[in-house]
Specification:
Layout: E1 4-9, H1 15-29, H2 34-37, E2 46-52, E3 55-62, E4 67-73, H3 82-96, E5 101-107, H4 111-116, E6 120-121, E7 126-128, E8 131-139
Parallel strand pairs: 4-5
Antiparallel strand pairs: 1-2, 2-3, 3-4, 5-8, 6-8, 7-8
């Protein structure tokens, strides 16, 4: 992976890549029901794509209230700092928009990853789509 970069994506123009990644990670790998994966929030979110050259390998979205979600990286690229690059871009965009408080619901196994990025756990464990999660918050500036 010699050309990792993250850019803001266009929900319409980049829809095929965004859907391919989220369907692969959440629906196929993690058995999230499609009706829970796709929601009305996508139309209003700022979407991000991580790319290796021209090939989309990860995605995330930022909602207008500072919620970050749908952070996903295709299996072959995990452990290569793609998630970190995605989250760094999402946090920077949130801060640029004046969203100094970022929130997310993390799968429990991923909580240490988000803690390294400055997020703190603010809830007890709960199930979302049958997967254990915790709510996390990051306060900046």
């Amino acid at each position: 992976m010699n050309d990792l970069h993250v850019r803001v994506a266009d929900w319409q123009k980049d829809n095929a890549d965004l859907r391919r990644i989220r369907e692969t990670v959440f629906i196929a790998e993690q058995s999230v029901p499609p009706e829970l994966e796709w929601d009305d929030e996508d139309a209003h979110a700022v979407h991000f794509l991580a790319l290796d050259g021209d090939y989309a390998i990860g995605t995330a979205r930022l909602l207008p209230d500072g919620h970050i979600g749908r952070v996903s990286v295709v299996k072959d690229y995990r452990g290569l700092k793609v998630g970190e690059a995605l989250m760094t871009a999402v946090i920077a965009e949130a801060e640029r928009r004046g969203l100094t408080r970022q929130m997310l619901s993390a799968q429990v196994h991923a909580a240490p990853f988000y803690e390294r990025l400055g997020f703190s756990i603010v809830s007890d464990e709960f199930l979302d789509a049958g997967i254990p999660h915790v709510d996390m918050v990051r306060q900046s500036g």
